[in-house]
Design brief:
Elements lengths: L2 H4 L6 E4 L10 H5 L5 E4 L2 H8 L8 E5 L17 E5 L4 E2 L1 H9 L5 E5 L2 E2 L12 E5 L13 H4 L9 H8 L6 E5 L24 E5 H7 L7 E5 L6 H6 L2 H7 L8 E8 L2 H10 L5 E5 L10 H5 L3 H4 L7 H5 L10 H9 L2 H11 L11 E5 L16 H11 L5 H14 L5 E6 L3 E7 L5 E5 L3 H8 L30
Parallel strand pairs: 1-2, 1-3, 3-4, 4-6, 5-7, 6-8, 8-9, 9-10, 10-11, 11-12, 12-13, 13-14, 14-15
Antiparallel strand pairs: 15-16, 16-17
Helix pairs in contact: 9-10, 14-18, 15-17
Length: 484
């Protein structure tokens, strides 16, 4: 269960630990739908503390060392979302019965959970299921159980997972995260038995699982993570190996997130062919290696030279995206050049040199290697070095040129409303189309502060180090409902 989905409901954090009970600060906060935490060492202590609040709780997160606290869930009669973490024993029939009998529960997230083989006659009426066992061990000595150990530390048959899912016929969303051996190319998900997930509309997980969970089911929203398996090179060479199975969903795919696959022309051609009605698309921009630094020029720098910019980049410094005046390379190189790579790509898209599905409404672009270009060792220290940088990676765009790109983009893709560069949890740049057809740029990234932190002026003392993409606790997921 993504953190964003919890935010839609009242928050409640329920921690059962072997410590002295601390059960204050409950009723008032929970009634106001604020985060609440209870720490107790017994079911009785916790139950007493919850009596005045349990009717108001709609989202619950449990940290439990055993399933003995699971029966408390039934007291939350209006509970819609449940996240359970730190189980050390198998999810047995008692736990499944609690889920099956709950009157309002819709979404369940399980972390570090071990699946058993208990038979359950009743169906569990869930719409969403998230399985996050990414901390499970996979270096177990017995190779016969290595496959299942990837998602469930102690099980011996991956079909146990399918058995559990089959007890939840109303599932609409599944999220999976796995830790695997990158050299284990033999990792295979068996076919899913018929009619196990008849209502599945959203899937997020590794590519090998996606190829099993999507074909033949009504999935419309897909997030595929290529980083979990050593197959991304092969798929980049022939993306149809991935896209063709995904396109065999029984419903048109409208949202596609491709984690770690670069958006090369041949890749996007396959996207266009396989997913023509696509509305939301997210992928990675092609990466480029930064230029090596010129140590000799660094030694010869003087203050006057260091505060200028290359003549070929002058327009962008005088009319910068994001505004400003009196800008210079020493403090604003990152601020000016950060837009070049993605705008070059968008220009090619606008001119139809690279084509996207015509129905596209939202486009998100990863730039994982972007930060490397703005590390101290790679930032040009002279006009000549900046000119060489611009010659290799492209001249920076001034604000008016960027608007021209987006104006052309609007003509080529009338449905397009937003373009996001970067990742929400690390920071991002955003362009949004306004009602009058113009495009507005905004970002929360501290680009100037980042530049200033690695080139502090003399006598400035210690300057806080800013990351190019600062992490934010309030922004931990993607724009879409799909989350990795």
């Amino acid at each position: 269960m993504a953190s964003s989905s919890i935010k839609k409901f009242g928050k409640f954090y329920f921690a059962m630990k072997s410590t002295r009970a601390r059960t204050r600060r409950l009723a008032n906060e929970s009634n106001q739908m604020m985060p609440v935490e209870i720490r107790g060492d017994s079911k009785k202590t916790a139950k007493v503390a919850l009596d005045n609040a349990q009717k108001n709780i709609t989202a619950l997160k449990m940290f439990a060392k055993s399933p003995k606290h699971v029966p408390l869930i039934k007291n939350f009669i209006n509970l819609k979302e449940l996240e359970v973490e730190m189980f050390t024993s198998v999810l047995d029939n008692k736990f499944l019965m609690v889920l099956a009998h709950h009157p309002s529960l819709e979404v369940v997230s399980l972390t570090k959970a071990t699946f058993g083989v208990d038979a359950l006659k009743l169906h569990i009426a869930l719409r969403g299921l998230s399985i996050k066992n990414h901390s499970s061990r996979y270096d177990v000595p017995n190779p016969a159980i290595k496959l299942i150990d990837i998602f469930s530390q102690e099980c011996s048959d991956i079909l146990d997972l399918y058995h559990f899912i089959s007890s939840c016929p109303n599932l609409e969303e599944i999220q999976m995260k796995f830790v695997v051996d990158y050299n284990d190319n033999a990792f295979i998900f068996p076919p899913i038995p018929g009619s196990v997930i008849p209502n599945l509309t959203s899937f997020s997980g590794p590519n090998l699982a996606a190829m099993v969970f999507i074909p033949g089911w009504p999935v419309k929203n897909i997030a595929v993570d290529l980083g979990a398996f050593d197959t991304d090179v092969q798929l980049s060479r022939d993306p149809s190996l991935l896209f063709l199975p995904l396109s065999q969903s029984t419903q048109p795919i409208t949202e596609l997130v491709i984690q770690l696959m670069e958006g090369k022309k041949e890749v996007l051609e396959q996207v266009l062919n396989c997913f023509p009605p696509l509305e939301v698309l997210r992928f990675s921009l092609e990466t480029t290696d930064p230029l090596e630094s010129d140590e000799e020029s660094r030694e010869l720098l003087d203050d006057k030279e260091s505060c200028r910019y290359a003549a070929t980049c002058a327009d962008a410094y005088r009319d910068p995206i994001g505004g400003g005046y009196n800008l210079n390379r020493k403090t604003h190189f990152c601020y000016i050049h950060v837009h070049t790579n993605y705008l070059k790509f968008l220009r090619s898209v606008a001119l139809k040199e690279i084509q996207l599905p015509p129905t596209i409404k939202s486009l998100s672009l990863h730039e994982y290697e972007l930060v490397k270009h703005f590390e101290d060792m790679y930032i040009p220290k002279t006009n000549k070095a900046e000119a060489a940088y611009a010659e290799r990676y492209g001249k920076p765009y001034m604000a008016s040129m960027a608007q021209d790109v987006f104006k052309t983009l609007s003509g080529s893709y009338p449905a397009l409303k937003s373009v996001v560069i970067g990742e929400r949890y690390r920071g991002r740049l955003r362009w949004v189309r306004d009602g009058d057809g113009s495009w507005t740029y905004d970002t929360a990234l501290s680009l100037v502060e980042y530049q200033h932190s690695i080139h502090p002026p003399p006598g400035a003392g210690t300057v806080p180090m800013y990351k190019l993409f600062p992490w934010s606790e309030d922004e931990t997921d993607y724009d879409s409902d799909i989350d990795f």
